[in-house]
C-alpha cells in the first residue's frame, strides 16, 4: 500500500491525499525527533485504508505517542485541548488573554463599551504598542471555519467603538482556520487576524507554543469529568504539567 494511493476524509468533509510528510512535520513541531516521527509514520502506514477519516489517523498517532513520549503527545493534542475548553467561549477568551499577557499585553476581559450608536460587550481589550478591540471566535467541534460573516461583524463593531474608546485596530482571534475571504477582507480594511494556522510564524498554535502557556485540558491522563470540573472552578492555564496534574488530583 503506497501513501500516494490513499485519500483521507478531513473533519470538514473534504478529501485530501494522505501525506506522510505532513504527519512527520506535525510531530516534529510538537517536539518529536525526526527518528520518532518517522517511526510513528512507519507504524501507522500499514493501517491506512482508502477514505480513512483523519481523526482515525490522529487517534493512531496519539496512542503511539502516549506510550513513547507523553509530553509530546500533550503538545500534539493541543488543537483538541483548545476545543475542550468549550462549549462556551469564555474559557477560550480567558486563555487567549493569558497568552497575550505573556507577550507584554495588558488585557481586560468582557468589557461593556459604549460605541457611537450602541453598547458592545468586547471579548478582550488589549494594549501594548496599540489598543486592540479583540473578538474571539471559538469553535468546539473539529472541521469548523471562521468565515467572512465573523470578519464583517468584528469590523462593524470596531467602527462603532473606535472613536469613542480610542481603539487603534480590530483583531479577530479564532481556534480554527479562516477562509481566504477573511484573509482578503482583513488585509483590505486593516484588521489583524490570528487563526489556528495563520499567519505563518504568528498563528495561534505558534503563539501558544512560544508562550509556554498551555490549557489545563492538554493533560491527556485527565478524564473529561476532571477537566470539566477544573474548568468550572476557574482553572484554565497549565504552566507546569506536574503541578497541573497535582492540582487535578486535589480537585477531582
Would you kindly provide a written description of the structure presented here, covering whatever features stand out?
It contains eleven helices and twelve strands. It is α/β, with parallel strands linked by helices and 252 residues long. The chain has three domains: 3-76, no CATH class; 87-211, 3-Layer(aba) Sandwich (Trna Endonuclease, Chain: A, domain 1); 214-251, no CATH class. The strands form four sheets. Strands 4-5-6-8-10 form a five-stranded mixed beta sheet, with helices on both faces. A three-stranded mixed beta sheet has the order 2-1-3. Helix 3 (54-68) runs antiparallel to helix 4 (70-76). The radius of gyration is 20 Å and the shape is globular. The protein starts with 6 loop residues before the first strand and ends with a helix. The model has no long low-confidence stretch (mean pLDDT 90).
Task: Output the keywords.
single chain, 252 residues, alpha/beta, Trna Endonuclease, Chain: A, domain 1, five-stranded mixed β-sheet, three-stranded mixed β-sheet, 47% helix
Amino acid at each position: 500500500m503506497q501513501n500516494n494511493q490513499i485519500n483521507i476524509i478531513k473533519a470538514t468533509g473534504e478529501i485530501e491525499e494522505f501525506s506522510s510528510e505532513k504527519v512527520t512535520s506535525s510531530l516534529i513541531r510538537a517536539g518529536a525527533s525526526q527518528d520518532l516521527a518517522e517511526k510513528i509514520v512507519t507504524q501507522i502506514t500499514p493501517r491506512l485504508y482508502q477514505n480513512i477519516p483523519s481523526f482515525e489517523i490522529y487517534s493512531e498517532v496519539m496512542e503511539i505517542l502516549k506510550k513513547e513520549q507523553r509530553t509530546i503527545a500533550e503538545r500534539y493534542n493541543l488543537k483538541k485541548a483548545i476545543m475542550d475548553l468549550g462549549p462556551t467561549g469564555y474559557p477560550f477568551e480567558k486563555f487567549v488573554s493569558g497568552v497575550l499577557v505573556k507577550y507584554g499585553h495588558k488585557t481586560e476581559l468582557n468589557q461593556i463599551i459604549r460605541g457611537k450608536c450602541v453598547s458592545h460587550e468586547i471579548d478582550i481589550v488589549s494594549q501594548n504598542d496599540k489598543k486592540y478591540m479583540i473578538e474571539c471566535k471559538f469553535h468546539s467541534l473539529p472541521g469548523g471555519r471562521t468565515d467572512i460573516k465573523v470578519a464583517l461583524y468584528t469590523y462593524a463593531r470596531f467602527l462603532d467603538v473606535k472613536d469613542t474608546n480610542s481603539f487603534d485596530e480590530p483583531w479577530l482571534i479564532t481556534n480554527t482556520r479562516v477562509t481566504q475571504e477573511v484573509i482578503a477582507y482583513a488585509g483590505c480594511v486593516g484588521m489583524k487576524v490570528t487563526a489556528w494556522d495563520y499567519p505563518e510564524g504568528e498563528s495561534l498554535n505558534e503563539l501558544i507554543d512560544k508562550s509556554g502557556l498551555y490549557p489545563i485540558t492538554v493533560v491527556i491522563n485527565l478524564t473529561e469529568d476532571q477537566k470539566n470540573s477544573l474548568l468550572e472552578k476557574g482553572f484554565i492555564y497549565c504552566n507546569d504539567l506536574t503541578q497541573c496534574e497535582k492540582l487535578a488530583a486535589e480537585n477531582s
